[in-house]
Amino acid sequence: MLHAQIQTKLLNIITMKKCLLPLVLVAISIQFVQAQKSTSLFNGKDLAGWHVLTGNASFAVKDGMIEGTTVPNTTSSFLVTDKSYGDFALELEIKMDASANSGIQVRSESKEDFINGKVYGYQVEVDGTERAWTGGIHDVNLRGWLYPLTYNPPAQKAYKQGEWNKFYIECIGSHIRTWVNGVATADLVDDMASKGFIGLQVHDLTNTPGAHVYFKNIHIQTTGLTPKPLTNIYVVNNIPNNLSEQEKKNGVQLLWDGKTTAGWRGIYKQTFPEKGWAIENNTLTIHSSNGQEEGLGGDIVTEKEYTAFELDFDFKLTPGANSGVKYFVKETYDSKGKSGIGLEYQVLDDSLHPDAKLGLNGDRTLSSLYDLIPRKNIPAALKKIGEWNHGRILVYPNNHVEHWLNGYKVLEYEKGSKEFLDAVAISKYKVWPNFGLWHEGHILLQDHGNEVSYRSLKIKVLPQP
Predict the structure, then answer these.
(1) What secondary structure does DSSP assign to 410-452, as a single string?
(2) Considering the entire predicted model, what is its pTM?
(3) What are phi and psi of 380, to 5 degrees?
(4) Is the pLDDT of residue 174 over 80?
(5) Which of 153, 231, 177, 185 is closest to 409 using CA atoms?
């Protein structure tokens, strides 16, 4: 009897193994296929598949790593891939001396007949300074910073100086996202370049020769790409009047659809102005007229009123132009044919329009709280007239307000505070009872008789406590 039971158990085990064997083989096969999705860009022995562009910094293989070393009197140096890449997920590890600076080029190029052969394109920053913008995205030798980490302050703590840091860069379509040590750092939507080489930078640090940057475990996946799950960080979207899935998840909505006048009307009117304002090529433009307030078309306002919000907008000035984005605008005030009454983010050509020299301490300059609070002097925030600028107005439920310009916070104040009321008391707004103290109001685009264009007006309504 015992012998028969043993035989039965053995038969059951053999049968079970036969059933499990195909499953085990399938699992091994899946793991093998997954492993094949990612390939190494660096063999750990030499620089095969790479070449140096611009500069004279040293690149060498040491202990299975790529070692970049700064040298004096040279421009930034780049070790770039021989191949170009479009959509991919890139992983690598970087360690850097405290005195060094580096970056990872993606979808980048260098052409002899363009900007003297300099490398240009997207760079994921590696920044060991107090600024701490590692993981931000910079457009090298073209447009400058696209995603400074001013947009994502928590991510400034992700980089660990003097240690190995893991970078993950995802480029799929027009969407570029970065992670540093598992922390989401940047989310950029931009369609300037769809393909290019990958490069490792040693920055031009003439005063600190001999500084080192180390790179290892460089792997890329170009097929079977699946985007990482959505995060909750701020999105820079440079495609006009477009919302990414991440923006939608964040609660961002288009305030203007880029095609029609839906949601907008003339101030003190029921309809949109019949002249003055034009919609063309995803852009809303007020045409030049007499250079005076309420020029040819007049101000336009949102049909809805807003209390607490994050407002994003792009604007472009023509030489000498004046306009403004106003918020908490109330139509109960009689402006006597002048522009609507509200708090104003100044939109102005500071160099050519005389209004920049009026007011007090520069409180009528670009991005200032008009006639009340001047912006900070941040030269990097200013662009040439004729280029698109990115403005932000943040109004929190606790009455804290911020103005931003091209990625930099240029002023902040507390609506209703003593400092705010004191500023109102010596401004042109002192004649308006309770100016700026309203709980809600319209958002306004000003017609000041000069040509100014707007696009990508977006709003995120913040919940009330």
Answers:
(1) EEEEETTSHHHHHHHHTSGGGGSTTTT--S-BEEEE---SS-E
(2) 0.89
(3) -65, -20
(4) yes
(5) 153
